[in-house]
Amino acid sequence: MKRIAVVEDEAYMREELCSMLKKAGYQALEVTAFEDAADQLAALTPDLVILDLNLPEISGFQICRDLKGKTFIPILVLTSRDQMADELQALRLGADEYLTKPCRKERLLARIANILKRYEGRTNLLEGQGFLLDRVTYTLYINNTSVVLPKNQGKLLETLLAGGNNLVTAKQLCRALWNTAEFIDENALQVNLTRLKKTMANLGMKQKVVAVRGLGYRLETEDMP
Length: 225
Fold this sequence. Notes:
This protein is α/β, with parallel strands linked by helices.
């Protein structure tokens, strides 16, 4: 079941949207605290966000900017603001669709279905901080461009991404590279990790590979302590 988050401050409208989504076969997630909405949404990882622009504490534009800066979750803006400048601004910030209130239920559901269909092709993609990695072809999508990584670099980055915030051991990385962990060739592993680090630096990626002495490796953003 697809999960759709609703970011709307008007209780009646939020309830109507959630009811409509549930009747259409979706799981509806309500976001009612807006100041840290982008962080909440990034943690929830919904399949789609329906976002109002006129919110207390923070603008919907800011939420759109922040969320698109850290994830590739699709955003459908649903707002009473019907000025072309507002629509263009939302689209520039990464919104996938822009609809104005009042909006017919049929139209909204059709746009939701279209967005979800467009994103279905991303099932092979792993998401990092500001980039996507195709785990089949090891194509890296970043800054509106794509780069095909050498196979070993792709395997290492895939394994580190799959580990999330957890440490990935040298044994796990060796298994990813050579399909065995019976022995660990630290020199060969370090050569491959150094090449990956250089590639990531050259691409200006926000994340970097960090070694935790004696324990393993993980991806950290540059601004993390």
